[in-house]
Design goal:
Layout: E1 4-10, E2 15-21, E3 26-30, H1 37-45, E4 52-57, E5 60-64, E6 69-70, E7 78-81, H2 93-103, H3 108-121, H4 137-150, E8 155-159, H5 170-184, E9 188-191, H6 195-201, E10 204-209, E11 212-218, H7 219-224, H8 229-235, E12 238-246, E13 249-252, E14 257-259, E15 261-262, E16 272-277, E17 283-285, E18 294-307, E19 310-315, E20 326-329, H9 331-337, E21 344-350, E22 355-358
Parallel strand pairs: 3-9, 3-10, 7-8, 8-9, 15-22
Antiparallel strand pairs: 1-2, 1-4, 4-5, 5-6, 10-11, 12-13, 12-16, 13-14, 16-22, 17-21, 18-19, 18-21, 19-20
Helix pairs in contact: 2-3, 2-4, 3-4
């Protein structure tokens, strides 16, 4: 069994994590730069010592500050694959892959057999005799994956494995990882900025901000109803945070009242909540509209960008510094309304297009 449990605090980085992952599941860790994603991997891999906490893998305790337990990185049964392949430059691809089996005490012939198996699995048999300097970025990353798997890890940690690859190479590597992770039911944690990685590889998502997990759940749930600004941005929906004022409205910290439809069980007045709505549901007006009950937000246009066949009109940051609201309109509407950065307009959305959700409980401190 390779179920993962992490509950650890690292004071000097302002990080405190509480993460669980079932045997054979893949967790995608998302978040902005500097959020603490790699810190989480370091705690699991044994590269960082927590000030307080517990890390277990299956029935084995890897870190326990209460008892003084700390298993060194090489003995954890954990393989860490980073953005850079970090292959041994003086060894061939086959020798790189055979290194871990040899380190475990296998004979040369046994290690060679293991290496041949994993080179086959990553479609790189023809690269066996090449040295790292003779490999492309995508080829080197395939060899690095084979080397990691040849170590027979109980847990695979992937730190932005596609980040350094050409955009044309990444999809093939993503398909390869999906096949290996799914076919073998491997437990894995993948740190990524790319929504496609989460969609293609992961069962669950954890969103990290400022050293804490602020949101977690299945990929479908997190992307369908995000509760954090980062998840909302990558999911392509608008999010406004505030406090519940009535069963069908919230009020933001700057006094904006947002009406919507309660999408969950009744949340007590005064409790934190978020309002979600799609950019396609937002209409743009140059004057405040009148008529049916609608939410109307006075905003200043920050930027215009093509988004498929539409133009995404992105407002400047909200008063609390969060990402500005977005509206998807036609190119004809942009021309007709003379929309441009710096112009003051009104974003309007019907209450029935807005869903209200309670926020998650506060992160572990």
């Amino acid at each position: 069994m390779s179920a993962l449990r992490v509950r650890a605090r690292l004071a000097h980085r302002g990080a405190a994590f509480d993460v669980e992952l079932g045997d054979g599941e893949v967790l995608a860790v998302l978040g902005p730069n500097g959020a603490g994603k790699s810190t989480l991997l370091g705690l699991v891999a044994g590269l960082l010592h927590p000030d307080e906490g517990l890390v277990t893998l299956g029935d084995r305790t890897l870190t326990d500050t209460a008892s003084g337990t700390f298993v060194p990185p090489h003995d954890r049964g954990v393989a860490l694959l980073s953005q850079q392949p970090l292959l041994f430059p003086h060894m061939t691809a086959a020798a790189n892959v055979a290194f871990a089996p040899r380190s475990r005490g296998l004979s040369r012939a046994e290690a060679r057999s293991v290496a041949e198996h994993w080179l086959r699995e990553v479609d790189a048999e023809e690269l066996a005799s090449r040295r790292p300097s003779q490999l492309s970025g995508g080829q080197a990353q395939r060899i690095a994956i084979a080397r990691a798997l040849a170590a027979q890890p109980r847990l695979l940690l992937l730190d932005e494995p596609m980040a350094a690859l050409d955009v044309a190479v990444a999809p093939a590597l993503r398909r390869l990882l999906r096949r290996i992770l799914r076919d073998e039911g491997r437990t894995a944690v993948i740190v990524t900025h790319d929504l496609l990685d989460a969609l293609a590889l992961a069962d669950r998502v954890a969103v990290v901000e400022s050293g804490h997990v602020v949101e977690s759940g299945t990929v479908r749930d997190v992307l369908a109803t995000p509760r954090s600004a980062f998840a909302a941005r990558i999911a392509g929906v608008n999010i406004l945070s505030g406090s519940r004022t009535t069963e069908d409205s919230i009020e933001t910290s700057w006094g904006e009242v947002v009406s919507g439809v309660d999408a969950s069980e009744a949340t007590p007045v005064g409790s934190p909540a978020v309002a979600l709505f799609r950019p396609a549901a937002v209409a743009v007006h140059t004057e405040p509209p009148h008529g049916s009950p609608r939410n109307c937000f006075a905003v200043t246009i920050g930027e215009l960008e093509l988004h498929g066949a539409a133009v995404r009109v992105r407002a400047e940051e909200n008063p609390d510094g969060s990402t500005g609201l977005a509206a998807d309109v036609t190119p004809a509407a942009v021309a007709e309304l003379d929309l441009a950065p710096g112009r003051r307009v009104f974003f309007v959305v019907k209450a029935q297009e807005v869903s209200l959700h309670p926020t998650l409980t506060a992160p572990v401190q």
